[in-house]
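Render this sequence as a predicted structure.
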Amino acid sequence: MTNVNIAIGSDHGGFVLKEVIKSYFEKNNIKYQDFGVYNGEKTDYPVIAKKIAKLVADSEFDKGILICGSGLGVAIAANKVKGIRAVTCHDTYSSKMSRAHNNANILTMGGRVVGPDLACDIVKIWLETEFEGGRHQVRVDMIEE
């Protein structure tokens, strides 16, 4: 497994799946820090998404994972932060391509969409897949402009 430092967070709709992902991290000795929510309390997903996105954009963490009910709201909110390429992945192919071709730095998922085993597979592939660069770097640069 790759040696990265992950910032993870969720709203109430993603809390249960976030806890599953944290268990996966612990089992596989993946360094992470949880930025909430901590007990499923109702919260506004843009607050968590902005916090994680800024930490990743400022290089305080290598990558981020955000989970809400659908995975969509946190992606939209995170992508408002310059330098963030947040993608919603609910399958392993999208997970792989988001890293290989788009150099995504935040993975988002829906706690009400993805089951625990698939979520762990998505995370594993996302963390292990390297950015291919080359022609894809040109496109990522265009996005950053």
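Summary. The chain has a mean pLDDT of 94. The helical segments are 15-27, 45-57, 72-78, 92-100, 116-128, 135-144.
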